[in-house]
Amino acid sequence: NALRESGAGSSGAGGSSGSAGGVGGGRLRDVHTMGLPKSHVEGGTAHCVQGGYDYYHYMQDRFDDNGWGCAYRSLQTLSSWFRIQSYTSVPIPTHRDIQSCLVKIGDKPASFVGSKNWIGAIELSYILDELMGLTCKIMTVQSGYDLPGKGRELAHHFDTTGTPIMMGGGALAYTLLGVDYNERTGECAFLILDPHYTGGEDVRTVIPRWCGWKKCEDVFVREFYNLLMPQRPTAV
After folding, report:
1. pTM for the full model?
2. Which residues are catalytic?
């Protein structure tokens, strides 16, 4: 099965050879194009990531980050988008690269390298700036249950900028690939790519549990969220 894992130990730098719905660097590429069930939103319009990305999640590369590495994996997914779109040739940062970078810029103490400490959206913005020269917008909501009220703003992001979004709240980070939004009713569904998956690269296992349209209350908690919205470089 071509959608199964190929070379799980690869560096995952990704390439431009994968077409929509394939394997990139031993990872599923553009997994949301592989037959998602529809969202619960009646009469909505889907606004989704533009361009390719690779699905990074727990336990890849024979590296055990189960329980602490979700934001690191989301950052790797975001980084893959910029590589596949040829905005950067910087390799996908490893967990150690990410931690070392935060120490280098003075955000974390030296003991942070090699730890299992969580990071969030703010740290991701530092990394993307330092390693790739990228700027990010950050959207904040006081509760995950307020996110449907940001549906129009998120739809605009996907229609114009088109980058995947990292969202962090409570103890969990997710990658947001799109929203299905009904302008009239305000109803909104969220296309979540979940980095907490620990299995192999099999799309039949991933969809729809780990990549799919979710209702707000099925995913988010009543806690503060930061949404990291990377911007395209103005000049390549």
Report:
1. 0.89
2. 70, 194, 196
